[in-house]
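Thread: Modeling a multi-component assembly for a lab meeting

Hi all, long-time lurker, first post. My supervisor asked me to bring a structural picture of a complex we are working on to next week's group meeting, and I have zero experience with this. I have the sequence lines for every component (479 residues in total). Could someone generate the structure of the whole assembly? Inputs are pasted exactly as I received them:
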Amino acid sequence: MKKDPEDQSPRNRSPYCGDPGALVSYLYNDGSPDELASIAAHVQTCDTCTSELAALGDTRELLSGWSPPPTELGLTLTSSDALPVAASVTMPLPSVTAAVADVPWWRQSSPVWMQAVAASMVFAAGMAIGAGRGATPAVSGTVAEAGPPAATPKTESVSRGELADLEQRLRGELARLTPAATPAPVQTASRVDDEALLKRVHSLLTESEERQRTELAQRTAQLLRDFEIQRKVDMATVQQNIGQIQGTTGAELKQQRELYNMLMNRAGLLAK
Amino acid sequence: MPVNASGVMTWTDEELVARSRTGDMDSFNQLILRWERPIYALAYRVIGQEEDARDVAQETFLRAFRALPGFKGQAKFSSWIYRIALNLCRDWIRRKRRTPVSPLPDDVDLSELAAEQGPSESVEDLVARRELSAVVEEAMKLLPEEQRTAVILKEYHGMTFQEIADLQGCPLSTVKTRLYQGLSVLRKHLKERTPSPTGRAVRVREH
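Re: Modeling a multi-component assembly
Sure thing. I ran the full set together rather than chain by chain. Output:
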């Protein structure tokens, strides 16, 4: 305490004096305005708390000098590595890590939209195959005519009948596997959904390309900046080394000169 | 899209979260861009390994994205992501079963220092800052995990006592005590190793 020795008596002692909670609240200015005002009023009259706060403030000043090593992060998620859990899963905050960590990635279900994209791609492939098959008779009399010339004789003799049989068998199998065939309205709705999804995929791809272009530009700029800094440091190091070499060379010359002088003196003495 | 004072179009975290939940990967990548640096800094300061901190940061966002359907906005996105990162750091520390902060190199690599700094800072400043950084990092090793985390969240991430209490799952008074005790240990250690608070230190705060 300072100012008035009477303030140090237990009767007048502030409840904030030496209280760690009060000190850190004041230090970080984190508390209710009334509380902070009361602490401030005490600190103004207490040497002990004032010096304690000053020391803690100095410590904070030193702490501010700790920065993690800069690293190029550039983290991004792509649809291939971000396979979220099913949309219906509700996850309370405290268990986020445990809940996700316990499920291996290969057992986690794909998102609905990814499944839909995959389904639409399969559907589109099927449509393409179907279109190709349907167009063949109109273009040529035989399937073989569309193939390579070397295969023409053999293919022509087996293709149409066997393909028709195969198609019949496949249709039969499909009919057995899916007795409750999907009604036409659902197929139409599905096709509309597929088109929307394909558009969405296309727009995502476009956005991704734009983002990659931007990132490339940023990284190039960073590289140029790093190169310039490195060049400056290299120049400083070279200059430092040259200075050292010059110093060393000067010392050697001095030694040689002294040796030479000494030899000359001795030679002079011997001549006399 | 909202426009900020600088004329730059920005979404709030909440808006980006909502868009991400519909499968918009770009929106989530914007969240990553916004938060990757603080999360990396947090991970590095807690576990002390650069490469592992990067991995933790990446894993944090990956897990956040996968758990996004379950995130109903009970807390701020930043609090949620910090919680995931801290949980991963804790897992990392338990898994490694070793001193959480890595030993520091004896020598200072000028080229490495230069590569990480802007052109305005001199080499001498870089060295001084790196040395101070090393001393603080060494001092942080002395703190128990809870104290260290509390100091890091308050000092480098500007969280309120209440936010730290929520993240650490402890009473507010405990947070204050941890901070005071942590700062006291750091104060003693730093006093022995540094002549005075250096004026060269550059204050770095993520948030």
